[in-house]
Amino acid sequence: MGKKSKFLTGLTKRIIPCLDVKDGRVVKGINFVNLKDAGDPVESAAVYSREGADEIVFLDITASIEKRKTIVKVVEKTAEQVFIPLTVGGGIRGIEDIRILLKSGADKVSLNTAAVENPLLVRKGAESFGSQCIVVAIDAKRISQEPRAKSKEKNKNLRSTLYALRSGPKWEVYTYGGTKPTGLDAVKWAKKVEKLGAGEILLTSMDADGTQEGYDLELTRAISEAVNIPMIASGGAGNLEHLYQGLTIGKADAVLAASIFHYGKYSIQEAKKYLKNKGLPVRI
Description:
The protein has 284 residues and is an alpha/beta fold. 39% of the residues lie in helices and 24% in strands. The protein has twelve helices and twelve strands. An eight-stranded parallel beta barrel has the order 1-4-5-6-7-10-11-12, surrounded by seven helices. A hairpin with a 4-residue loop joins strand 8 and strand 9 (180-185). It is globular.
């Protein structure tokens, strides 16, 4: 079933708070930097679960950079407090890491850096645990100038680069918590991970992240229309209308937000009532 038909059938839209965790604390920044403390992950997860969040995403955002495993103990404590699906990402390098997190209480795992460096991990994870357990996170930044290339390759790539820039917006995939450009085209990468067996995509616009100025709707829609698996929009939500736009204009199956929930600007129920009043199917 294609994305357009899925959208029109009115499948329930999901509201997902995100817990970006660093040193055991929830943090939030702008464009992946200038992180500020936003509370205790276990307490936050419990509140969101009680408020009616559809799912919770827990990302250990410095695990890959620090080349360590996900903080399993915090995941276990968080899982004990929530009775809705919990997705966990950060520091996953192999099948055994996935197994440990699922045994620790995660319902799904989110792969970003590991998926780029070892795409077959997506396939092995889907075969071992089911596609529904494997989420591929894509951190993407809009390309506003010639994509990075080694000096000896620049002349060879110039013609194709200019063509690509003329043919519409492009986004590059980043890994290691948004610190490492990969040269991968985000739309093409999304299509590839779907073929490898990913059950869902968690898409974050690095340009919009933390700005509270709205999702990158061009990016969100481009990815959504390119794949047939569910896609979660992330990065930039600042008000309830932004959530609505992400689900309609951006064609996302779910919207993820952090700042507007962490700092009490809106509650989960306020968000759901707003979306319901706008005609979208949500679980109240």
